[in-house]
Design goal:
Elements: H1 4-14, H2 20-27, E1 38-43, H3 53-66, E2 71-76, H4 80-91, H5 96-118, E3 125-126, H6 134-141, E4 143-147, H7 169-179, E5 184-189, E6 194-195, E7 207-208, E8 210-212, H8 213-218, H9 228-236, E9 242-247, H10 253-258, E10 265-268
Parallel strand pairs: 1-2, 1-5, 2-4, 3-4, 5-9, 8-10
Antiparallel strand pairs: 6-7, 9-10
Helix pairs in contact: 1-2, 4-5, 7-9
Length: about 270
């Protein structure tokens, strides 16, 4: 009987890490989901947090109620302040890695603020190495807050046409959901979901309740409600094969999405 572990070890000792046979052997390993009962929620920076008390307080109440039945990893976006920083830094000719660090500082601030609002309920904000304690937080209080910006910093992969970091908070939250093997990824925005055009500038734009990544690309919807890099991540993911976008300004939408209802837009890998 073949020994997959022995075969993989042998290949690792003899082959390049880009070798096709080695990669196939590594890919054949059984998936292990670290937090299969948890859901990652991304709270939009510009769409929710930048609106202040009127938008944030009702959502905090909904999160506190929902955590009684759900384990929640709550990621924060960066928003308007990050866009202002990007504008200045790009105008100065600074590279994507520097803009990534600047954007991360704003997402960190939003995580700190949301963490303080949830502190009296035992839900804390963690960063960096603190993510290793996420299972403990979930076991104790069913919730934890983290900054959504992936920690690439100066190692950010530059986009081919811009210095704006391509992997921002939508992508960062997705990566947490995928790497922890969570059961769902929900984006909380200020629109009902995906439209055929930007509803803020195109009145009467057609709402899209469900769509695949392939259909989005075919219709030129790469950079609409989500960062387009999320579509690439979704296509290659093992655990998170669809994401849901809901309007967090509508009371109860997040609760319904957590319960498995089709609220807003669902984007599927295939």
């Amino acid at each position: 009987m073949a020994n997959p572990k022995g075969e993989l070890e042998s290949l690792l000792m003899q082959r390049s890490l880009t070798d096709a046979q080695l990669q196939a052997a590594a890919d054949s390993a059984t998936d292990f989901r670290i937090l299969p009962d948890a859901t990652v929620i991304k709270i939009g920076g510009q769409s929710i947090i930048d609106r202040g008390r009127a938008a944030v307080y009702p959502l905090v109440d909904e999160i506190v109620a929902a955590r009684k039945a759900h384990k929640l990893l709550i990621g924060t976006g960066a928003g308007t302040r990050a866009r202002h920083l990007y504008s200045i830094a790009a105008g100065l000719g600074l590279p994507a890695g520097v803009l990534s660090q600047l954007g991360a500082s704003v997402a960190d601030q939003n995580a700190a603020m949301l963490g303080q609002l949830l502190a009296k309920y035992g839900i804390s904000a963690v960063d960096g190495a603190g993510l290793s304690a996420v299972p403990l937080y979930l076991a104790e209080v069913n919730g934890v807050v983290f900054s959504g910006m992936p920690p690439y910093g100066l190692w950010m992969l530059p986009a081919s046409t811009s210095v704006i970091p391509p992997y921002r908070t939508d992508a960062g939250c997705f990566l947490v959901a995928e790497q922890f093997g969570c059961k769902a990824m929900i984006y909380v925005k200020d629109e009902n979901g995906l439209y055929a055009a930007n509803p803020k500038t195109s009145k009467g734009a057609t709402f899209i309740p469900k769509i695949s990544v392939t259909e989005m690309r075919a219709n030129g919807l790469d950079d609409s409600i989500l960062e387009f890099t999320v579509l690439d991540l979704l296509k290659s993911a093992r655990h998170i094969r669809q994401v849901q976008v809901v309007n967090g300004l509508v009371p109860g939408n997040l609760t319904r999405a957590l319960a498995g209802e089709h609220v807003g837009t669902i984007i599927t890998a295939s």
